[in-house]
């Protein structure tokens, strides 16, 4: 396989991981979602804590309590996905939209920034780093800018 073919194959596998995460989120399937992560994952996520890391974060028991706070499917839209591959390391970033209905009836509709770092081991790509964030208003309120949409944020 040529370098170009290898890179295209790697990018296709990473795209497949992204699609698997979307499907797992929609179905609220903790095991499928967890299967996309490497045991040495480091996560900087929207919800506290500031950092979560290690095998416990890669397991379904990490995801299950959060997924159970939703009723019905969780919609995750990944837009503008950019993938960069170099050997057995890859990074990708996107603007993502998450919406659905929470068990308390709330209907969040949130755009956020996402960056993934992946590593290929034994021919399989797994997520080893995840960073999701929203900007915040720099007006001393500390308020997250959850009302931004790509068409209004300069993206």
How would you describe what is shown here?
The protein has 155 residues and is α+β, with helices and mostly antiparallel strands. The chain is built from four helices and six strands. It has one domain: Nuclear Transport Factor 2, Chain: A. It has a six-stranded mixed β-sheet. The model has no long low-confidence stretch (mean pLDDT 93).
Number of E strands: 6
CATH class: Alpha Beta
Q: Give a quick account of the main beta sheet: strands, pairing sense, barrel closure.
A: 6 strands, mixed
Alpha-beta content class? alpha+beta
What is the N-to-C order of secondary-structure elements (H for helix, E for strand)?
HHEEHHEEEE
CATH architecture: Roll
Question: Percent helix among the residues?
Answer: 25-40%
Task: Could you tell me the CATH topology label.
Answer: Nuclear Transport Factor 2, Chain: A
List the SSEs and their pairings:
Elements: H1 3-27, H2 30-34, E1 37-44, E2 52-53, H3 55-58, H4 60-67, E3 70-86, E4 89-102, E5 109-121, E6 124-133
Parallel strand pairs: 1-6
Antiparallel strand pairs: 1-2, 3-4, 4-5, 5-6
In short:
The chain has helices at 3-27, 30-34, 55-58, 60-67; strands at 37-44, 52-53, 70-86, 89-102, 109-121, 124-133. The protein is an alpha+beta fold and 155 residues long. The relative contact order is 0.17.
């Amino acid at each position: 396989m040529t370098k170009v073919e290898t890179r295209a194959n790697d990018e296709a596998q990473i795209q497949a991981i992204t699609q698997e995460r979307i499907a797992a989120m929609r179905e609220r399937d903790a095991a499928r979602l967890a299967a996309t992560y490497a045991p040495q994952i480091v996560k900087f996520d929207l919800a506290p804590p500031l950092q979560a890391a290690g095998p416990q974060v890669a397991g379904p028991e990490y995801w299950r309590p959060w997924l159970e706070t939703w009723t019905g499917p969780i919609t995750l839209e990944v837009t503008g996905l950019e993938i960069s591959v170099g050997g057995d390391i890859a990074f990708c970033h996107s603007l993502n939209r998450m919406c659905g209905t929470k068990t308390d009836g709330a209907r969040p509709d949130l755009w956020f920034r996402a960056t993934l770092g992946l590593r290929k081991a034994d021919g399989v790509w797994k997520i080893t780093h995840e960073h999701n964030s929203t900007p915040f208003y720099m007006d001393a309120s500390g308020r997250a800018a959850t009302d931004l949409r790509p068409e209004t944020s300069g993206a």
